[in-house]
TrEMBL record:
Protein family according to the UniProt entry: Belongs to the amidase family.
Ranges in a coiled coil: none
A Pfam cross-reference name: Amidase
PANTHER family, sorted: GLUTAMYL-TRNA(GLN) AMIDOTRANSFERASE SUBUNIT A, MITOCHONDRIAL, TRANSAMIDASE
Cross-referenced InterPro entries: Amidase, Amidase_dom, AS_sf
Name of the protein described by the UniProt record: Amidase
GO molecular function, one term: catalytic activity
UniProt organism field: Streptomyces canus
Entries under SUPFAM superfamilies matching the protein: Amidase signature (AS) enzymes
Domain Amidase: 15-429
């Protein structure tokens, strides 16, 4: 390691070195990184000093998101042909770097963001800082562990059916899934293009909002990107939330894998904290909630299989067990099934959006259980972990969602709630999440 003496006391250099020290302590133990990039970060800063509104923010980038200083492996032995379509870096990464963020590593995921943690796979399995015998969530797995332990300030991840929100919930960090189309997915390996989003995970909604303000905006190269204008997400951090109409759905009847004994009381206390902010709270029922989850699974499985179809014919045995399980399930879905799921999606999404005629935001649990043990996780029994997660429905409808920590199980594992807004209302989501985090300290807790 060598640091240019001209930059020895430079804030950006100091931030990278803090990241290096934390990474030396936690990176390998918790399976945070696929590729650490601290030396590359310092060289990039020497060549072109990082300036801008994010100067000094250290960043982990999920290893399905292309970044120019390191290979993107998707944590797989199989390379997809035709990627990254001549673009060596994702638009989202370039935007963050141009604003001064410094990439210090490519972070662990699951193979092509699929399946379950694979201890026999080619990359690390991310472990939970609160209990290393438990999962850190996925598929943006290294993101939550890395942020919580200071390996980096924030992470750029993807969320198809919960891949940002679940790691945030399990590690006690904060994630912000934007409205589908707000942030370009250009230069990102797709999982299911009609569901994929790119967004931030950080220690607070404050930093998530700062990152989103840079990430948001159209990209002519992205056919899924929207021309909708970005909002004032940073300004929303200080907004008064008194009088906001909040609809609450506990989703208890859909907790197929069970409910942690502490979760109802923890969630109820979070609702009382919201009441103290002056919101107007009532109950809502998310319509056709189980069907939304079925639709999301059909779309994800079918689209993932189609993307990998040619590679599967060539390299089936080189994929890991979790990915093979997903692809086998996807292969059974017919074109009729897929088109019917898309039609159902349109109808149900319209039904859900009508809820926002009556409320400004919806609040639900992110998960009913804390992080599951890694031992025994199997792609053949997904209900043992998927049954406690409440993220897929909002991916189907495309709504923006923040997951924020709200407390702990009796075993000391984080629990979280989701703040859901209408399409393009990220500023409203940010406002409530920020007010909640000003009034509580759950997001500041560390093991």
């Amino acid at each position: 390691m060598s640091t240019d003496t001209r930059l020895a006391h430079d804030p950006v250099t100091e931030a990278v070195e803090r990241s290096r020290r934390a990474s030396a302590e936690f990176g390998e133990k918790l399976g945070v990184f696929v590729t650490p990039l601290h030396d590359e970060a310092l060289k990039a800063h020497r060549d072109r000093p990082a300036t801008g509104e994010l100067a000094g923010v250290t960043l982990g980038v999920k290893d399905i998101v292309f970044e120019s200083s390191a290979p993107t492996t998707a944590q797989s032995q199989v390379a997809l042909a035709d990627w990254p379509h001549g673009q060596p870096e994702a638009t989202a990464v370039t935007r963050l770097k141009n604003a001064g963020a410094v990439v210090v590593g490519k972070t662990a995921t699951m193979e092509y963001a699929l399946g379950v943690p694979d201890t026999d796979g080619p990359g690390p399995v991310s472990r939970n800082p609160w209990d290393p015998a438990r999962w850190a969530g996925g598929s943006s797995s290294g993101s939550g562990s890395g942020v919580l332990t200071g390996c980096f300030d924030a992470a750029l991840g993807t969320d198809t059916t919960g891949s940002l929100r679940i790691p945030a919930a399990y590690t006690g960090t904060t994630a912000l899934k934007p409205t589908r189309g707000l942030v370009p997915t250009t230069g990102v390996y797709p999982l299911a293009p009609s569901l994929d989003t790119v967004g931030p995970l950080a220690g607070s909604i404050d930093l998530c909002a700062r990152l989103l303000s840079v990430l948001a905006g159209p990209d002519p190269a992205d056919p899924w990107a929207s021309a909708a204008p970005a909002g004032d997400y940073v300004g929303a951090l200080d907004a008064d939330v008194a009088g906001l109409r909040i609809g609450v759905d506990t989703l208890d009847e859909y907790a197929d894998a069970g409910v942690d004994p502490a979760q109802p009381a923890v969630f109820a206390r979070a609702l009382r904290d919201l009441d103290a902010l002056g919101v107007r709270r009532g109950e809502v029922r998310v319509p056709s909630y189980p069907l939304l989850n079925v639709v999301g699974n059909v779309l994800m499985l079918a689209e993932a299989h189609e993307i990998h179809r040619d590679a599967l014919a060539r390299d089936w045995k080189r994929y890991g067990r979790g990915a093979r399980w997903v692809f086998a399930a996807g292969a059974s879905i017919t074109s009729y099934d897929y088109l019917r799921a898309q039609r159902t999606r349109d109808a149900l999404s319209s039904e859900v959006q009508r809820l926002f005629d009556e409320v400004d935001l919806i609040v639900t649990p992110t998960c009913h259980l804390g992080a599951p043990p890694l031992d025994g996780m199997s792609p053949l029994e997904p209900s043992t972990y998927l049954g406690s997660m409440h993220t897929t429905a909002w991916s189907v409808t495309g709504n923006p969602v923040a997951s924020v920590p709200i407390g702990f199980t009796d075993d000391g594992l984080p629990l979280a709630m989701s703040v859901v807004g209408p399409h393009w209302a990220e500023d409203r989501v940010v406002a409530l999440a920020a007010a909640f985090q000003r009034a509580t300290d759950h997001h500041q807790r560390r093991p």
